[in-house]
């Protein structure tokens, strides 16, 4: 969990009162589904080990009382240079061996690292923002297969060789494999309503910047 704290004026509180902004994982909090759509008010956090872990993270970051304006950012898969999810994917995709994971039908909520940092900064600086924000791109209704095709296109490589679910389970273990093989359609409804302007709302542009 990433957490940052800073004194900042709030709309109805003295400027000396603090605020707290923390980040957790949206793909772990919301229950995997091929049909459901989740926004910041949707239930979750109570169906498996990782969802319960996120719930505990958020509870640990929460300060008692109303004297602190608190914001939780639930992030999707973060796309950035030099590591993270892309770091593990680049070699096989550059070799033309990339493709969808499992069926490829599962949703793949993502966000460019620049926008995740931007949302955290927005939460700190905008005194009207509080509660949960989904840190995912507006186009995060992307499926895993669509993500694979877009990454292949950004690299100028084909991306049609699927990674079977049995291999994923053998490599990552049953619980971690669930996060890759099952997904959620997560939308940043409250994030957009708060006034945040995305730098990378579309997947193609985000991936081209990351792999450039």
SSE inventory with pairings:
Layout: E1 2-7, E2 18-25, H1 26-29, E3 37-38, H2 49-61, E4 69-75, E5 77-79, H3 84-94, E6 110-112, H4 113-125, E7 131-135, H5 144-155, H6 165-172, H7 174-181, E8 185-186, H8 189-193, H9 203-211
Parallel strand pairs: 2-4, 3-8, 4-7, 5-6
Antiparallel strand pairs: 1-2
Please outline what is shown here.
With 212 residues, this protein is of the alpha/beta class.
Question: Could you describe the 3D structure shown?
Answer:
Residues 164-209 form the DUF1731 domain. This is Short chain dehydrogenase/reductase family 39U member 1. With 212 residues, the chain is an alpha/beta fold. Helix content is 39%, strand content 17%. It contains nine helices and eight strands. The chain has a four-stranded mixed sheet with strand order 1-2-4-7, sandwiched between helices. Helix 5 packs across helix 9 (203-211). The longest helix is centred in the first third of the chain and has 13 residues, at 49-61. It is globular, with a radius of gyration of 18 Å.
Q: What's the helix count?
A: 9
Radius of gyration: 18 Å
Spatial order of the strands forming the largest sheet = 1-2-4-7
Hey, roughly how much beta strand do the residues contain?
Answer: 15-25%
| Mean pLDDT across residues | 85
Write down the secondary-structure element order. EEHEHEEHEHEHHHEHH
Number of strands: 8
Class computed from helices, strands and strand pairing: alpha/beta
Distance between the termini: 28 Å
Structural shape: globular
Low-confidence stretches: 1-17
Report the biggest beta sheet as strand number plus sense, adding barrel if it closes: 4 strands, mixed
How much helicity do the residues have? 25-40%
User: In oligomeric terms, what are we looking at?
Assistant: single chain
Pfam families: DUF1731
InterPro entries: DUF1731, NAD(P)-bd_dom_sf
Protein name: Short chain dehydrogenase/reductase family 39U member 1
Domain DUF1731: 164-209
């Amino acid at each position: 969990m990433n957490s940052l704290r800073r004194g900042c004026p709030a709309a109805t509180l003295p400027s000396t009162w603090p605020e707290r902004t923390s980040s957790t994982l949206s793909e772990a909090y919301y229950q995997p589904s091929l049909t459901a759509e989740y926004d910041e008010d949707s239930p979750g956090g109570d169906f498996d080990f990782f969802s319960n872990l996120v719930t505990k993270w958020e509870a640990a970051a929460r300060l008692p009382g109303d004297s602190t304006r608190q914001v939780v950012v639930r992030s999707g898969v973060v796309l950035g240079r030099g590591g993270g999810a892309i770091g593990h994917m680049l070699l096989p995709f550059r070799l033309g061996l990339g493709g969808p994971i499992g069926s490829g039908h599962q949703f793949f909520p993502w966000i460019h690292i620049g926008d995740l940092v931007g949302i955290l900064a927005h939460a700190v600086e905008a005194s009207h923002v509080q509660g949960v924000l989904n840190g995912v791109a507006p186009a995060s209704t992307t499926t895993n297969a669509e993500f694979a095709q877009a990454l292949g296109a950004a690299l100028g490589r084909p991306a049609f060789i699927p990674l079977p679910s049995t291999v994923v389970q053998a490599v990552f273990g049953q619980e971690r494999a669930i996060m890759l093989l099952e997904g959620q359609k997560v939308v940043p409804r409250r994030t957009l309503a708060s006034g945040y302007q995305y730098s990378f709302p579309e997947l193609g542009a985000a991936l081209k910047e990351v792999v450039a």
